[in-house]
Structure formats: structure tokens, C-alpha cells
Design a protein that fits this description.
By secondary structure, this protein is mainly alpha-helical. The chain has one domain. This is O-antigen ligase family protein. It comes from Acinetobacter defluvii. One of its GO terms (molecular function) is ligase activity.
């Protein structure tokens, strides 16, 4: 962050349109990505504050502010109304214990305030000349490091799921966030039609494969659909690249099937064993426990259908079930964004959640263009990104983890802002 502050000071002394201004925004993204990859604690509001400061500085340069579109405004604000304010307006914070839990849950409740800063992104990207190409460049820098970093520790821990889970804790949301960046990398690799696009595609696949080998099954569910979307969207224009892509996928899967102790096969065998145990009424396994938690979520929802029993209420109930011997541990959440929101925040919470997923997805689909390659890239990658998070949310409550939640809102807000600017530039040309 010292480097970021230095560049910000340089910007204030120079022309806003200088290269340093663009580098400053790039560094903000890279700082976040690298803290995420290294799995280090980080005060996310620093990034939001930097965006706000960058936005305020545009006034000094008399740059016209670009009003965020309705989709971006709703995305950045809806969770404040459906989650955060419900705790303050109805005194639900009083239900939290004064020690230990209060600070943790306050962060979860207040995290949605950070996303208000993303309303400034259209103006910032325009004023600081931060383009989609530069944005995707930051993603590839992150993916190059991710591929090497994850591969090293996969080998170091001999692909042992238990040791990897302890080191990359929480491994499920960690994998979800970084695989989502790999998904974005795949789409840009097909957008780019130069020879280097094969290098970009390889970087994205190496990063994705290294993460898949860590064995988070819930992070795989959406990938076949995304692969199909890529092939169906680009096969006519780039059939050779699509064949290279399919061949690479086939080799990866074939090798994992052939190897007797491949991480992929081990996790699939574990799932099959879970299914057998569940049929024998043994739910004390990864899949079975999720089914129990989801069933209990519906019962909790019935007790407080409008506002829910609160985030802490969910954990408190799980601790009681552990005491009764029904759960092996006191789970903090229900391992599903849908069931957890239903139990914790009721109808109000599930409404807000669906808006944050469906609204941007519809926006991306609505703005899809076959003739404008820039819009095609932004809308396809945006729709795939949202779809990926929506599907991953079936088996994991990533909203409990600040970094992953921040990544979702930041990336979606970024892509919406780029689309708004692209359409604005197109209208100016007309």
C-alpha cells in the first residue's frame, strides 16, 4: 500500500491522464488479487477508500462525472437495505454476544457499505483511462502467479486434501474466487485473436487445473456449462483454438482418470461413498451434513420468515445441534448462500441475494452483441462469472468470507462499468 500512496501523490502533482494515473488503478486491482492469492488478511475498505479518493480527485480536474446506470446502483445498494439495515433498524445487533462474535459479525453485516465505492467506477475508468485490456492484463498477472503458487503447494502437500484445506483455509471459497478469475481469463483468450492468445489460454487453464486438483467439488459444478458457452460462442470464428481448448480439457480429464490416486478421482470416489452412506441413513459426511444443514435451514426460516434468525442465530442453532450430537461441529453457516440467507435473513435476505445475482446476469445477457467484439467479451464473461458464483453458492456460503464477497461485487461492478462506457463511446461515434 506504500507504493499505492506514492503513485497517488504523483498523480496529484501531474496530469490526470498520465500513465501513472492508469497504473494507480491497476495497482489497486493487483493489490487485492495478490492478497487474495496469498490468503492474507487485508482491510478491504482501503481499496474502496482509494476508489473514492480517486473519484474526488476528478472534480479537481473538472472532469464530468459519469452517472452509474441503474443496474450498478441497485447492485451496490440492495444488500444494505436487505441485510445491513435490518440489523440496525430492528436492534438485531443486541442479539450478538459482547465478546468474540460481535466484531466478526459486525464485519459481515457492514461489508456491504464498502461496495458503495463501486458507484464511482464508470467515472474512474473513464478519467484514468483504465480499459478492459488493462483490466484483463491485471487478471493474467494474477493468474500467472496463481498457477505457480498453487502448483508448488499442491506438490509440496502431495495433493493431500486435508493439508491443503488447512493451509488454504477456507479452501472452498479460496478456490471459487480464483477459478472465477480463470474463467474471465478464458473468455479474453478467445476474444484475443493474435498468436499470443494461445499463451493466454494456456495460462488460464494451468491456473484453473491447479485449483481443480485441490478437490473442491462445488467449484467444479458450473465449469461444464461455461466450457459449452465458450465453444458455442467462438467455434465458428476460432475453431482451431476451440479444438486446442477441448483437447487440453480431454488430456487433463484422461490423465486424472488413468492415474490410480489422482486428486480428481479421489474426490469423486469420496462423493460416491457419501451417496452410499446417505442411502444407509448415515449423514456424517460432507454431502450428508450439507443435506442436514439445508433441511434445518427451512425449519429455521419458518420461525422467522421475514427477517430471519440472523447470521449469529444460524451458528447458535448449529452449536445446539452439536451439543445434541446431531452435528460433528458447530458450523458457522449452512454451506449454501440460498439456504443460509433464507434462515439468517428470511424473505428479505433471499430477495436481496437473488437481485445481486439475477439483475447483473440479465444485464449482461441483454447487452450481448455479436457485432461488437468488446461488448461480446464483457457480456459473455460477465454472464459466465455471475453464473459461476450462483452455482457455487448452491453448496457454499461464500458471503461469510469478506474477500470472496468483495471479489464478486468488484468484478461485476467493473464489467458493468466497462459496458456502460463502451455503449457511451458507441453512441458518441453515431
Amino acid at each position: 500500500m506504500i507504493l499505492t500512496k506514492h503513485i497517488m501523490f504523483k498523480i496529484m502533482q501531474s496530469n490526470l491522464y498520465s500513465r501513472q494515473a492508469t497504473v494507480f488503478i491497476s495497482i489497486l486491482f493487483l493489490v487485492f488479487f495478490f492478497y487474495y492469492i496469498l490468503n492474507e488478511k487485508f482491510r478491504l475498505w482501503y481499496i474502496s477508500l482509494a476508489f473514492v479518493v480517486a473519484y474526488l480527485y476528478t472534480f479537481k480536474k473538472n472532469i464530468i462525472s459519469i452517472k452509474p446506470n441503474l443496474t450498478l446502483m441497485i447492485l451496490c445498494c440492495i444488500s444494505i437495505f436487505t441485510c445491513t439495515l435490518s440489523y440496525y433498524l430492528f436492534d438485531r445487533l443486541d442479539d450478538l454476544p459482547s465478546k468474540g462474535y460481535l466484531k466478526t459479525y459486525k464485519r459481515l453485516i457492514d461489508q456491504y457499505f464498502y461496495f458503495l465505492a463501486f458507484l464511482t467506477l464508470p467515472t474512474i475508468f473513464y478519467a484514468y483511462k483504465f480499459t478492459p485490456k488493462i483490466f484483463f492484463t491485471t487478471i493474467y498477472i494474477a493468474l500467472i502467479f496463481t498457477g505457480g503458487y498453487i502448483t508448488y503447494f499442491n506438490i509440496f502437500f502431495d495433493f493431500n486434501r486435508g493439508q491443503l484445506s488447512a493451509f488454504f483455509n477456507p479452501i472452498i471459497t479460496y478456490n471459487i474466487g480464483l477459478i472465477s478469475l480463470s474463467v474471465l481469463g478464458l473468455f479474453y483468450a478467445f476474444y484475443d485473436q493474435s498468436k499470443k492468445s494461445y499463451v493466454l489460454l494456456t495460462i488460464s487453464l494451468i491456473s484453473m487445473f491447479s485449483l481443480i486438483l485441490q478437490g473442491t467439488r462445488g467449484a467444479w459444478l458450473a465449469l461444464p456449462f461455461i466450457y459449452f458457452l465458450i465453444i458455442s460462442s467462438y467455434f465458428k470464428q476460432q475453431n482451431k483454438k476451440c479444438l486446442f481448448f477441448l483437447a487440453t480439457l480431454f488430456i487433463f480429464i484422461a490423465v486424472n482418470i488413468a492415474l490410480p490416486n489422482s486428486p480428481l478421482k479421489n474426490r469423486m470416489n469420496a462423493f460416491q461413498q457419501d451417496s452410499v452412506n446417505i442411502q444407509e441413513s448415515d449423514y456424517q459426511n460432507s454431502t450428508g451434513l450439507r443435506l442436514l444443514l439445508w433441511k434445518n435451514s427451512i425449519e429455521l426460516f419458518k420461525t422467522q420468515p421475514v427477517l430471519g434468525i440472523s447470521l449469529y442465530g444460524v451458528e447458535k442453532n448449529n452449536c445446539e445441534l452439536q451439543t445434541q450430537g446431531k452435528l460433528p461441529q458447530c458450523f458457522q453457516h449452512q454451506h449454501s448462500i440460498y439456504f443460509n440467507e433464507l434462515a439468517a435473513h428470511g424473505l428479505l435476505g433471499i430477495f436481496g441475494l437473488l437481485i445481486t445475482l439475477l439483475l447483473p446476469f440479465i444485464y449482461f445477457v441483454k447487452n450481448f452483441s455479436r457485432s461488437n467484439e468488446n461488448l461480446k467479451l464483457l457480456t459473455l464473461s460477465g454472464a459466465a462469472f455471475v453464473f459461476y458464483f450462483a452455482v457455487c453458492g448452491l453448496t457454499e456460503y461464500y458471503l461469510f468470507f469478506l474477500n470472496t464477497t468483495y471479489m464478486y461485487f468488484l468484478i461485476v461492478a467493473t464489467l458493468i462499468s466497462f459496458i456502460q462506457l463502451e455503449k457511451h463511446q458507441f453512441k458518441k461515434k453515431l
